């Protein structure tokens, strides 16, 4: 459904690694849904993991943006908030509508992540790269 490839790179190792982790957790959920492996404990665990990692990752980027006074912070956070809003009840699901719910949620997540990385995070990556270059130059 979604696989990491170099086109997703935002030229920041930590953010790239977090995106890889996020994609791998999404893939775990996809696998559970596709194999109809609806073990309640298993699916609850993995969805909790996904929810927690989304939170951790978005906060990591936002802390970086604040730290370095990123000029497009407001726009970027607004996009994060869209995902937060859409996934806020991710753990509350109807067991009878699991397939439908997760198909919708997963399609949204994959679409959001792909678009967000390609358009919004890449812009942040460029900025961070410039800052690093400037900082290196300052040290010289
Ligand atoms: Fe982001």
CATH level 1 name: Mainly Alpha
Helix coverage percent: over 70%
The number of domains is 1
What is the 3D form? elongated
Short note summarizing the structure:
With 140 residues, the chain is mostly helical.
Helices and strands, with pairings:
Elements: H1 13-34, H2 40-67, H3 73-87, H4 98-139
Helix pairs in contact: 1-2, 1-4, 2-3, 3-4
Fe (ii) ion (FE2) binds next to α3 and α4.
Give the tags:
mainly alpha, binds fe (ii) ion, 140 residues, Four Helix Bundle (Hemerythrin (Met), subunit A), 4 helices
Write up what this structure looks like.
This protein has about 140 residues and is mainly α. The chain has a single domain (about 10-140), classed as Hemerythrin-like (Four Helix Bundle (Hemerythrin (Met), subunit A)). The chain is about 75% helix and about 0% strand. The chain contains four helices and no strands. The protein has helices at about 15-35, 40-65, 75-85, 100-140. Helix 1 runs antiparallel to helix 2 (about 40-65) and helix 2 (about 40-65) packs antiparallel against helix 3. The termini are far apart.
């Amino acid at each position: 459904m979604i696989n990491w490839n170099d086109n997703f790179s935002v030229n920041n190792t930590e953010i790239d690694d977090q995106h890889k982790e996020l994609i791998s957790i999404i893939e775990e959920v996809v696998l559970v849904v596709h194999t109809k492996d609806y073990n309640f404990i298993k699916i609850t665990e993995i969805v909790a993991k996904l929810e927690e990692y989304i939170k951790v990752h978005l906060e990591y980027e936002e802390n970086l943006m604040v730290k370095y006074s990123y000029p497009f912070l407001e726009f970027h956070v607004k996009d994060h908030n869209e995902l937060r809003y859409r996934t806020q009840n991710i753990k509350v699901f109807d067991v009878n509508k699991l397939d439908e719910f997760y198909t919708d949620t997963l399609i949204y997540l994959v679409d959001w992540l792909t678009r967000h990385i390609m358009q919004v995070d890449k812009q942040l990556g460029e900025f961070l790269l410039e800052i690093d270059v400037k900082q290196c130059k300052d040290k010289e």
